[in-house]
Amino acid sequence: MRTIVLTTAAAAALLIAGCDRIPGTEANRIAKGEKVAADQLLDPSSAQFRKTVLRPGPKASDEKAEGPRWIVCGEINGKNRNGAYVGFTRFLADPDGTEAYLEPNTATTQEEADRAGQRCQRGAKGPIYSETDREIRMMQCEEASKLYAERAAVDEFNMTWAAMCPADDALQPVPPPSTREQK
To answer: Is 137 within a domain?
Structure first.
């Protein structure tokens, strides 16, 4: 009798441990989504995950909708070129595809982007005295454009996150570290 109980317990433990290999299960979808997200890192084998959940995507309720049937949301950490972990960041992944979106790594605030835009506008209004003056003004406007694009990427990620992922305390935005590296 004791042998049957131990055998049954061991079989149940193996079955539970292998759930991520059974197609269509929640554990399998999460594992596939984590792999898709890890592939975005410089060193995919170094990926660490936490607070990973599976959520229904747009196609879960409407076959004609754009987007995936399932979304894996969570936080991922990976190593940079120096071999150091850079800190957890949020990610969204399609477990049935090859797309994953990591939270953009920028420390640029909206105020910094606005100040750069104002410098560009002020420079455009004044007279140009030399070729160097022209180049400086062009550099100011290029910098403003770059900063606005960074902020737009952050805003787009945050809107997508809010629409797809839970609004509970477990998955709130992670403060960006000063340096992160991604592919």
So the answer is: no
The helix or strand, by DSSP H or E, that contains position 42, with its residue range, turns out to be: none
Q: How many domains are there within the chain?
A: 1
Which token pair is 82?
A: 């120096």
Choice between 65 and 5, residue whose per-residue pLDDT is larger: 65
Evaluate whether 37 touches 102 at the Cβ level (below 8 Å): yes
Tell me whether residue 147 is in a domain: no
124 in a structural domain: no
Residues 6+ apart with CB under 8 A from 120: 137, 140, 141, 143, 144
pTM attached to this predicted model:
0.68
Rounded distance between C-alpha atoms, residue 143 and residue 119, angstroms: 10
The answer to whether residue 117 sits within a structural domain is no
Domain range for 24 is 20-107+157-171
Give tens-digit pLDDT for 110-134. 888 888 888 888 877 777 788 888 8
* Position with higher pLDDT, 143 vs 179: 143
- Residue where the block lists tokens 């150091």: 84
Q: What is the pLDDT of residues 55-86, one digit of tens each?
A: 888 776 666 766 678 899 999 999 989 999 99
Q: Chain-centre distance of CA 113, in angstroms?
A: 22
Alpha carbons 95 and 33: distance in angstroms, whole number: 4
Residue type, 42: L
